[in-house]
Structure formats: C-alpha cells, structure tokens
Amino acid sequence: xxxxxxxxxxxxxxxxxxxxxxxxxxxxxxxxxxxxxxxxxxxxxxxxxxxxxxxxxxxxxxxxxxxxxxxxxxxxxxxxxxxxxxxxxxxxxxxxxxxxxxxxxxxxxxxxxxxxxxxxxxxxxxxxxxxxxxxxxxxxxxxxxxxxxxxxxxxxxxxxxxxxxxxxxxxxxxxxxxxxxxxxxxxxxxxxxxxxxxxxxxxxxxxxxxxxxxxxxxxxxxxxxxxxxxxxxxxxxxxxxxxxxxxxxxxxxxxxxxxxxxxxxxxxxxxxxxxxxxxxxxxxxxxxxxxxxxxxxxxxxxxxxxxxxxxxxxxxxxxxxxxxxxxxxxxxxxxxxxxxxxxxxxxxxxxxxxxxxxxxxxxxxxxxxxxxxxxxxxxxxxxxxxxxxxxxxxxxxxxxxxxxxxxxxxxxxxxxxxxx
Amino acid sequence: xxxxxxxxxxxxxxxxxxxxxxxxxxxxxxxxxxxxxxxxxxxxxxxxxxxxxxxxxxxxxxxxxxxxxxxxxxxxxxxxxxxxxxxxxxxxxxxxxxxxxxxxxxxxxxxxxxxxxxxxxxxxxxxxxxxxxxxxxxxxxxxxxxxxxxxxxxxxxxxxxxxxxxxxxxxxxxxxxxxxxxxxxxxxxxxxxxxxxxxxxxxxxxxxxxxxxxxxxxxxxxxxxxxxxxxxxxxxxxxxxxxxxxxxxxxxxxxxxxxxxxxxxxxxxxxxxxxxxxxxxxxxxxxxxxxxxxxxxxxxxxxxxxxxxxxxxxxxxxxxxxxxxxxxxxxxxxxxxxxxxxxxxxxxxxxxxxxxxxxxxxxxxxxxxxx
Lengths: 420, 371
Hints:
The structure holds two protein chains of two kinds. By secondary structure, chain A is mainly alpha-helical. Chain A has helices at residues 25-32, 37-64, 68-79, 87-117, 129-148, 151-173, 176-179, 181-198, 210-236, 241-256, 259-273, 283-309, 312-320, 325-340, 342-355, 367-374, 386-418.
C-alpha cells in the first residue's frame, strides 16, 4: 500500500481573526451607548447607578473602612497559628512551587509555539494577554503585602516571583523532548512542597487554619478524589452489571445530597464506623474524607463525559490491534478522555475551592472560620467589622476562582482548536 | 466465566466493607447504649422552632416536617426569583448597549466567583443584622424594616371565608372557560387572544365580588411597632431574608450564564429572519429567540434548581430553621447521629428526585418534535 506523506503538504491556514476595524470615538459612542432612545435612557440610568456604586465602594475601601482588623490579623487569616520557627517551611514550599510551575509553564509555552508554527493550533489572545492573566493575582499580592507592611515578606515574595519568571524562561530553553516531563515535575513540586511543610518534624495539617487550610482541603480533596472518580466512571461504563449498579448507586446518592450532609457523615459518623477503641481522626482529616467522598462522585460524572466523547472507532481500532480491555482503557481511551475533561476538572476544582468554606459549619478555622473568629476578639468585637472582614475574605476567594476560571476558559479554547 | 467470578469477587468485597463498617456502627451504638432503632423520631423534640408555632412537646418527626416545609418555602421562592433575575441579567449580557452588557458581566463575574456561604453570611451578619434596632426602625405604616426583619402589611381573617372561597372557585372555573374561549376565537379569527389578561380580569372580579358578597371576611393587617417588636402584618425574618437573597444572587449569576449560552446557541438565522419580518427587538426576543433558547436551557437550569435546593442547607449556618438546621439541633439534643444524618440525606434525595421528575416532564413537553 502506498502512503502519502502528509507533512509535505501546506498546512491548513488557521482561521484568521477578522481585521480590527478602527472606529472613531464619536461613532463608537453612538453605536454602543446611544443607538436608540431607550438605549440612551439605559446608558444614563446605568451610568448614574454605577457611578453611585463606585463612589460608595471607593469611599468605603479608601476612607471609611477600618482595615485595622485585617492588618492586625493578616497572619491568622493566611496561616492561622502556624508556629514561628516553622514558617521557613512555608517559604521554602512557596519557592519550590514557583520554580517548578514556572518551568512547566515555560515548557508548555514552547510546545504551544511549535504547534502554532506548524499550523496545528490557532494563536489566541492579544498583546496584553500575559499582563491581563496575572493582573488579579498581582493586585492581590500587592494588597496583602501592603497590609502586611513588612520589608522581609515583600523581599521574599519578590524573590519567589523572580524564581517563577526565571523558571519560565528556563522552561522555554528546554529541548522539546523534555517538555512533557515538566507537567510531572510540577506535580512532583506540589508533593515536595507538601512534604517540606509536614515532613521531618514539620507541622501536621490537623493544626492548620486560614487560607493554608482552605488550599490544603481544595488541592488534597481534588488530588485524592481524582483517581477514585476515574475508577467510578470506568465502573459506571463497565459491561459488568454488578460493578455498574454499585457505581451508579454511589454516584447518584452523593449527587442527590448537599455537601454539608456528606461533611456531617465525615464529622459525626466516621467515628462510629471505626472498630471500638480506635481513636477518632482529627476534624481536618474527617472534613477531608467528607470532601473526597463528595467530590469523587462529581469527578466521576465529568470523566464519564470524557469517556463518552471518545469515538467508538478508537475502541474498535484498539480491539483490531489485539489490545486487551485493560490496555485499551489505559493506553487508548483514558488519555483521550482525560485530555477532553481538563477544563471541566478545573471547573470542579474551582467549585471545590469555594465549597471548602462549608467546613466552617463543622467548626474548622479555615478562611471563613478565622474571619468569624477575629471579629470576636476583645478589641474588635461588636463594632460591625464583619463587613470589612467578609469583604477581605471574599476578595481572596474571588481572585482565586476568577483567575482559575479564566485559565480554564483559555484551556477550553486551546484544547478545542488543537483537536484532530 | 471470568466475568462472573470477577463480579462475584467485587460484590463480596463491596458488601464485606459495608458490612464491616456497619458492624462497627452497631457495636459503637451498642456500647454507647443508643441502639439502632428509628424510635427517636417518635419522641418529643424538646426544642422550639423560630417563627413557627411548633410545640416543643410534639415529636421529632413533626419538627423535621416543619424543617422540610421551610426548606421548600425558601427553595421555591429562591428558584422563582433567581430565574427572573437570571433571565434579565442573561439577556442584558447580550445587550447592544455596551454599558448594560459590561454591568451584567460584572454582576455575573462578581457573584459566581465567591462562595455562596459567604454571600449568605454577608447579607445576614453585615447587612441585615446591622439595620437599625426596632426603636429606630424604618416605619412606613405598611412596612417596618429593622434588624429583626421586614414586616409588611398582610391580610387577616375577620369573618367566615366559605362564601368567599365558593365565589373564588366559581371565578377560577369561569376564568379557565374564558381563556379557552379566547383561544378558540384567536384560532378562528386571528385577532389577538389576550387570554391571560381576560382570565386575570375575571379572577379579580371574582375576588372583589366574593369579598363583598361574603360580608368582608378579611381585612388588612397593618404592622404595629412596639418597644419590643412588631405585631400583626407578615414577618420576613432576618434569617429567611439572608438565605433567600444569598441563594437568589448566587444562583441567578449561574442562570444568567445558562441563559446567555442558550440564546447564543439559537441559530443566527432565526434572529435575522425575525429582523427581516420587522419584529421589534422585544417581540424578536419574546416570540422567536427565547422559546427556542428555552428548549436548550431546561436541563442545565434543572441542575441549578437542584443546586439551589441543596444550597438551602446552608441555612444551618445562620439558624434558618430548614431541615438541616432542625436535624442538627436534634443531634445536639441526643438524637442518634447515624440515623439522623440518614434521615437528612433521604429528605434531600426526595427533593432531588422530585425536581428531576418535574424537569423530565417539562423537557418531554418542550422537546422538539421531529417531523
């Protein structure tokens, strides 16, 4: 059989962006704000309302707000009662993460540039895209450092940022064949960071609190529920009825009840299921178990979507090649399915990140718990400072989930275009 | 053969683990002298429920029913409000007016990226509880707003309702008949049917007629403000207000995105055809785009409704007496935790199943009939 060399053909041109039309400001205003009489009314109305809102918010943030409660308790909010002499572990972990993730981002950028050059992917974004991507995080870091008012912390954060940038540059210099290992490197970095914080006389998660606990619950929850979810999804699609029934039952029950009831299971009932005399695990561990039980069902449904998106031809081709069912799943189906569900998984991670606030109800001092705690301190109690505190906590959550959701949208567009 | 063996082994493993955990639960319950029966549901609850005339000596089952009722109340109100706001914001996100579009986007992006629990707590602790105390309440006669909630004018029974209800029932039947008549006429002549307007007119007439024919069986109940609180009128408690506003805002931001996506999914040709027919922007949306978008919207919308019902369990954080809160109190008062949490999960499973059934029915009715 003769084969055709495809790569000598001209690559298909990517769909081109329409040329940008230059619109004079007067016409832009007429077209976008005053096109009809009711649009003019709406514009005036909304401008007045927004102006008022911005004025009130601005006045609150810069004039009336009493941010002392945040300044004084910043450390509690971020790391709670993390011991002083172990803080270096957190800083080291931060540097490890900055380095490995920077390296991975750099390598990903190289791969991507090569794909664009080969015409397999469409370039996206404008000139200011990198700036827009990091803007919320940079603003948040600036706010935090300003509140902290500490030269040492500022220098350390600047150093971490420098390491991240250097890592990204180094990543672009890496040869292509190592590029795919950098994703693994990022995961190793995450594990190493965790190890540095808890290992060898480190600080056990059971005493964590504040933002640190929030992040621990979110990342730990998704990391452990991911393999469970994949197994559940495979079980749900299995041709063995017994396996299917068990998996479907589990998934549907968990998806039918609120997270708080599953947290109650972890909080109130885990202790009952252990043999009498076994010490009950710490509340943090029990909350984590609840979160994992809950998230696994949602991950399973996402992965099932990915499995369904793999064309039948792939299974048939694998069978024609004589691959066993296990090999078909492991080598052919799962890699394609998981690639397709990356954006949805990021979405699930975001919702988990927000949902960790529920562990406040079972008495943990994560971000929201600390916020509640500090408004009850003697010097701040009964002054209506809950407004400032909740606003600050929402800002942390908002920056986290907004920037992640932006990244997931980008990924979605990218993976959609890169599809063969 | 191998398949059968594998399934057997799998089942034995699953059942074994479940039985092991279950036996531990039994032994632990036994050791603590709690037992495994659900008899605790029949014992007296021993706690009162805010803003309800629940008698603490009634059994726990009755208390749970009050909780279920409160969950249903806040869920239905939340679903209705969130849908209305969500549709408006979703349409506004596609406005031709730049400012309106950006404002709607800001609304969605702000609310979608903050935990719903924080929105609820924010409204409860930072807004509603910071309202002026009852002595300095906003008092407009028909409305009293203070940190004890919102009291509005309501109806109060002053006589026998029998005649009124009879007239109202007859009016409802008549309204349905009028609506059918208008529809037939519309089919026959093509004149605007305005059946909703006609039916509403008949109903209003029936209410007025019944009110006077029945000897004015009810009157207005204006809130009266005292030193310690308000009497009469209809009270919306701070807890109810906070959870309703929180759930509505959060869910409406998600619904807005669904509405936007569904409208964008309606083929462009439909909009262009409507323009070619000379429909006004409103008529285009109302008669061409939204009906087609609705079909795409239903499944994700049902998902959001389910989420709203499940999120109403966050009432437990601000002491709104919905079912999670009631059962949490019961557990605090020596009700056995494993059975109580099981009951709680069953309640939510029933809610989820109910909503799934309803939306499946709606979906089947709206589904495109292929020719």
